[in-house]
Structures are given as structure tokens and as C-alpha cells.
Amino acid sequence: MPDTLPTGMPQARAGGLPDREQLRAFIENATGRIGKREISREFGLGPEHKQALRQMLREMALDGTLAPAGARRFRVSDRLPESMVVQVTGTDSDGDPIARPVQWDGDGSAPVVFMHPELRGRAALAPGERVVARLRRIGPGRYEGRTLRRLTDAPMQVVGLFRTLDETDPVASAPARYRPAGTLIPADRRAKAQWVIPMGEDADTPDNEIVIATPLPQSGPGLHPARIIERLGPQGDARTISMIAVAMLGIPHVFPAEALAQASAARGVTAQGRTDLRDMPLVTIDGADARDFDDAVYAEPAGDGFRMTVAIADVAWYVRPGSALDREARLRGNSVYFPDRVIPMLPEDLSNGWCSLRPGEDRGCIFVNMDVAADGAISNARFGRGIMRSAARLTYEQVQAARDGAPDATIAALPDGLLDSLFGAWRCLSTARAQRGTLDLDLPERQVRLNDHGQIAAIQPRIRLDSHRLVEEFMIAANVAAARCLEGRHLPCLYRIHAPPTPERLESLRRTLDTMGLKLPPVGSLRAADLDRILQQVRDTDQAGLVNELILRAQNQAEYSPEPVGHFGLSLAAYAHFTSPIRRYADLLTHRALLVATGLEPGPAPGHEELEEAGLAITRTERRAAQAERETLERYAATWLQARVGMVMDAHISSLSRFGIFTVLDATGTSALLPMSALPEDQWHHDEKTQTLHARDTTMVFRPGQALRVRIEEACAIRGTVLLALPDTPPSHRRRRT
Length: 738
What we know:
Elements: H1 20-29, E1 34-35, H2 36-43, H3 50-62, E2 66-68, E3 73-76, E4 83-91, E5 97-101, E6 112-115, E7 130-139, E8 142-150, E9 158-164, E10 180-186, E11 195-198, E12 209-215, E13 224-234, H4 241-249, H5 257-264, E14 275-276, E15 283-286, E16 295-302, E17 305-313, H6 315-318, H7 324-332, E18 336-337, E19 342-343, H8 348-354, E20 362-372, E21 378-389, E22 392-395, H9 396-403, H10 409-412, H11 418-436, E23 445-450, E24 456-462, H12 466-488, E25 495-497, H13 503-515, H14 528-538, H15 544-554, E26 559-561, H16 585-597, H17 608-642, E27 648-657, E28 660-665, E29 671-675, E30 684-687, E31 692-695, E32 701-702, E33 707-716, E34 721-725
Helix pairs in contact: 4-17, 5-7, 11-12, 13-15, 14-15
């Protein structure tokens, strides 16, 4: 750590905080990881600057200027830290290992790390192995790495597809001592290494089985041997697909015995010390396939508006801080949802039992009563701990049908006017949402439907109804009330934050939209309402899908933090997750804080540092879950498309690059690549300014949003990748057996 600023570095303003550029320059030029202590010492800051400095660092981290580098430490975001965990993905032409960072949230592809060979006497690094490496930047996106520590606390694993050896495999001609029982095709699309399973190490695995393997010592030139340690199931069974992501991303899916025992010992609550809501006709509204019901709603007319109640399962009653259940819930962070299964945050005895608001059964809850005026303003929010009895378990489709004039027997049995009051309160809340100017992206969500045999029956859009929007607005109102309650009592709150897009991303978005005749206001004055105005302009046009995707890509990812940064997309200054404690640990922390704030449980409430640490942890688990769900959908789509290789389908262009055209298939909503090699022979030029790809000798031009007819050329189910061709080009001979 230098004692003075490097030569040429701007000096701080006397007696105050450095500006953003001064702070960035200091962190970039200093040695090692930088935190608030080092910054305060360098710029002579006192305790009175603590809060302002913390806020500046947070904002710079959120807008991409800085990146986290350990607990409360930062680095300039376009460089990797001095040391970090990397994973070996393959070898270069000299046989030396190539690696990539395990954690990478930056724009574009992760940097490449060229690892030095291991010291004499130490085993070479195997593909898939993780090490802590000391890094040295050697160029844009390129680093040298030296192993500091091999991570041997758990055996390295490779998830992939086992194929028995046949005469077409190159290793079939290897000398007898190196000839394997089969090959292993890694599920990680970044992996470059060729894996083999030696004779006797295949665990009697049949051909075309998804497996987990662990590397063995290298036994021959260019060969990476591994032993099969677990069979996940046949590739042809769609129910195996979700387990690939679970295994690859290390998602915990087996509960410890102590946590299961605590869940099994749970019992129902009594009315003692609770507000009795059992006469209030609260109803749950969920998807038809939902099994856990953690929120219930009610509304009745009050003046020119409505009195609303949102009741949430009292998970905090059962999951006590520091217990085995609590430790496991925090480790998981959230539930993970796949087409064939759910990896729950809590054991089934709680998630589908005592914490599920089943109709006609007494359940503990934490509730909030709120008044909503005709203009959507919320007032008189009051939290309490109650006992309730759900009047009905409703589905979105049921509620929508009733609103459209076709109520079924379940809804007809509810008190008169209940549904009208729910939709009336929703209209009030929607008025306030429109006045705030929120970002309402319209990105069709795809769902995979399986038949009873585990085969893919269909991949179809998930229809979004007004009944979905009703529940969403009730939950947003309750979440806002939770944040305001904690702020009003001066208690730390784990906010759900969504920082505005960075100036660089907005400028890139502006340039792209400009080529489409769509104008954005200057970056410094842009609000969510301005982006939503663009969305309204293109609604019901051919550009709608692309513009929604472009605006989504420009956004920062939402996260959890005790810093009140606000929520850009919802245009809210304070927002905290409160409504889903069965499936999100963040909501459970909010419940615990509210119970202390309202005097329903003794303190202390979770502190700022505890929430900061928890926020970082559960933001990571949330992103891990999103990655697992996204990659699994891609594998389901590729599996479905394998049986349709050669078929011509509709697609539209999502983006262009020098090596091909990225498209979205209309049938599945998933990405597929039309490689440059599949285009007609010509000299192709990618113009970044106009966002076009055009040929020199023909009038053929490709641009984002353009509709295409494409042929499915290749689909790799294990990796979830799809390659395309144009319908009038000859078929390729590159199709894989996977």
C-alpha cells in the first residue's frame, strides 16, 4: 500500500470526500485490495465521512465502476484481483492449462488465464480443477496465473455424458494400455478437455448415461482419465436434465438429518399471543401446479379506496436463528424450480406442511393491514402476528375466469364481492404504479410440460393474466410497507435493490435504439419511465421482442443490501422482500426484523454487518438458482430439438457478432447460433455502429429483430446448445451423437 498517491494521480479535495474519479484512480493504482480503512487513511477522512463514503463505494460497485474483492474490499472492475479462484477448462497447444474465473459478473466473456506449469514433483492441473491463483494481467482479457493453493477440500467433479467406445472414437486406436471403456462429454460448454473413462472405472454404466466423474492421475499423452462416481440417469429421460445443473453448480439438495428432525418435530400454532384472523376470508392465489402456499390476500371497501390484508406464512416461528434449519436455509438461500422438481429451501414438512397456508387449516402468519386510496397511496400499514384459516386455494386461471364472468363452484362459495374488492384494490395500486413510471418488460416466459413418462410434451409460453398482476401488486405493496416500517423504527433492513443502468450500458442501448428510430433522453436524466415509454412505442410491433431484450440486457441485476439504494425498475425508494419466506431467506430475515420492530419478539434485530454479509451470500445463491433454471431450460429445449434436426422453424435475430448470428427460436424461446460458416459464401462485414451484418457482393443484410427461417442443424442436449443453418444451404456433416 503506497503512502502517497502515485505520480499524475489527481489530488483529493481538502477537507472532504474525494470525487468518483479520484477514488477510482486511487484504487486502480494501489497495491492489493482496498477498503474503507485504506481510503480514509489516504484521503484523511474522519468518522463524519463514514456514511457518505460507504454510499459512494456502494454506488460505484452497483454501476460497475468497482467490483467486490472480498469482505468490504474493492477493485476496479475491468481487472481481476491479485488472486482469486479459477477453474481449469482445458489446455493450450503446448499442453499447459487454461483457466477462467469461477466468479465472473462482468460484461462479455470471462478473461482467459494461462496457468504456469506446476512445480516439479506436483501433479499437473486437470481440466475442471479449481485453484487459488496469483494473477498478472498480460493484455485485455488475458492473464498469467500461478497456483497458490489447490482446493482439495472436496474432490473435483466433472458432470457429463458417458458414451461407450466404438470404432468412430479417435481414442479407439490408442495403445491397449490407454484404451478406455468410453468417453465423457462434459456438460460445461466452456470445457475443452477430452475425458476418457478407463476400463474398470465405468461403474457398469450403460451407453448414453449422465454421470458424475472425478479425475484420475493422467495416464497417457493427451488423455484425461476419470472415474465414474455417480449415475444421474439416462440422457433420454427428461427428468435427468435438471440434475445436471444441480450437480454442476453444487446446489445443496439433501437435507442434513438434524434439519429434517427439527422440521418433523414442528407442530401447529395456537391463538395465544396472536391476532385471530380465522373469520377473515383470506385466499391464496397460485399456479395450478403449486404445492406450497405462503401468501394470502383479502380486501374490502373503505372510503374511496380499500382496506387490504396480506398474510404470510410465519416461517420465523419454526426456523429459529442459529438452528440446523436456519443454517441449511441460509446455505441454500432460496428454492430452485425446475420443470420436473423443486429443490426447496426448507424441508417438505414445513414448506408443504406447517408453513403452507392450506385451505381450511389453522396456520400461523405474519400479516400487514394497509389502506389503499383511489390514487394508490398506501397508509396506516400495521404488522402483526396472527393465526388464520385460508378460505380457498385458488389458481390464477380460476380467478381470471371468474373476473371474465365464469366463476366456478369454489369462487361462488366465497363471500359476495370479495373478488370485486381484490380487483378494485389492484386497480388503485396500478394507478400508483403508472404514476411512478415503472419498467414493465414484456418477455414471454417459457414453461416445459412433461408427460407421465418424463418426456417433453410441450415447450410453451406461460400466459400472463390480470390475476397474476393482482397478486404481484399486493406483494409489492406489502414489501414496501415492510421496508418503511423498519426505516420508521430506525432498524437495519435488508433491501431488495436495483441500481440504474450504468452510463456505458445506456449509451450502448441508445446507439442501438437510434438505428431503429427510437430516441432516449440524455443518460444523466433518464428514468425507468423513459425506458417504459420506448416499450409502449413498440408494443404489438415486430420490434417488441428485440427491444424488450435490449432493455433487459442494459439493466443491472437486482441484489440484496442493507444500503437504501432504491429499486430502479419499480421506481421505489425503499423495497424489501417480505412475502415469500418459504422460498427466500431474505424474506425470513425481514420477518425477524419486523417481529423485533413491532415488539412481538425480543431483540436484537439483525444488524447492519450481519445483513451485509447475508445480502452478499443470498445474492450469490439467487444468481446460482437463476443460472441453473436458465441452463436447464436450454437443455430441455435442445433435447426437444434433437428429434427435430433438419426441420425448418421461425426465429428472430437477437444480436450479431463477427462469428455468427445469435437468434431466438420462436418455438422454444431459447437462443441458437447461426454460425458465420453457415452463411452463403461471401465477404461479410459486421458494422457495430449500425448493428448490421452485410455481404459485400449481395444485397443480403442481417439486423437485430429481423425474422428468419432457419433449419435446425445440430442440437447438443448435454450442453444445451443449438446450431442453425439457412433453409437453402446443404446439410452439414458435423452433427454429434449427443
